[in-house]
Structure formats: C-alpha cells, structure tokens
Amino acid sequence: MNLPRICCKSMYSMGSMAGILGARLWAVAFSWAQYAANPMQVLMFWGGGLSIQGAVMANVLLALWFFHRKGLSFKRFVDIGAPALILGQAIGRIGCLLNGDAYGKPTDAWYGVVYQPGTPAYEAWGQVSLVLAELFEAGLG
Fold first, then answer.
1. What Rg do the C-alpha atoms of the chain give, in angstroms?
2. Do the Cβ atoms of 15 and 62 come closer than 8 Å?
3. What is the pTM of this model?
4. Measured between alpha carbons, how far is 59 from 40 in angstroms, rounded to an integer?
5. Rounded to whole angstroms, how far apart are CA atoms 26 and 13?
6. How far are the Cα atoms of 16, 26, 79 from residue 10, in angstroms, in the given order?
7. Quick one: CA torsion of 13, 19, 21, 27, rounded to 10 degrees?
8. What is the pLDDT of residues 65-124, one digit of tens each?
9. How far from 46 is each of 3, 5, 21, CA to CA, in Å?
C-alpha cells in the first residue's frame, strides 16, 4: 500500500509544528518550577527547553488521528517515518552538546571537552574535561 504523496507532505508539515509544540510542552511540564515565576518564558522556546519525548508523543498522537481520518495505514507511515525519528534524536543530541545540558563523566581521554562557563556542564564540573556522551549517542563519536 502506497501512501499518497500529498498526505505525506501534509503530515510532515503538521508533524514539524506538532513536534516543536510537543517538545516545548513536555519540557515546560517537567520543569514548571522554572517557569512559574515568569510564565511568559514558556513561549521563548529558542532559549532552550525542548524534549524529544514531547515531540515523539505529539507526533504519534497526530499520526494516529491523521491516518485514521484519511483511512490510511498508521503502521505503514511509522515504517516510513522511523528514520526521521533517529535523525531527530541525533540532531537533538548535537544541540545538547552545544548547549552543555547533557554531558558525560570526567575523562583524561583526547576526546574530552571542557564546557564554557554558564552551561549546566560547567556548573556541575567546572574546568574538568568530560566525555562527549551526546556525540556518542548521536552516532558521531
């Protein structure tokens, strides 16, 4: 069974928006104490606070609704869309590296990195060289 091209384009467009919204809502829901004092920060997603779990959840719900409405196979779409999920995770992990909010253990190895002041990694470990766990997970290390 082939999925009509127009349906895939519509799903990808809506999925991009749902992914960003779901990622933000998930991050805010699990860090509400950080936003309670200034709720307007909830809208400032460009400052960080996106979560792959929220993006996946939002897109699964969207896909279930969308493909049921169109009378198409959800399972077929999941087979087609799985590589995009893996790519999204890899891109997100690169973002974690640049933001310094997910990091590995201290290391003396050549591939260790010292994060800049102001990042969560620096706040936790200071000038200590850390394993690039994000890149290992992203498949680039």
1. 18
2. yes
3. 0.71
4. 25
5. 20
6. 10, 24, 17
7. -170
8. 998 998 888 888 788 778 888 888 888 888 888 888 888 999 999 989 999 999 999 999
9. 34, 31, 12
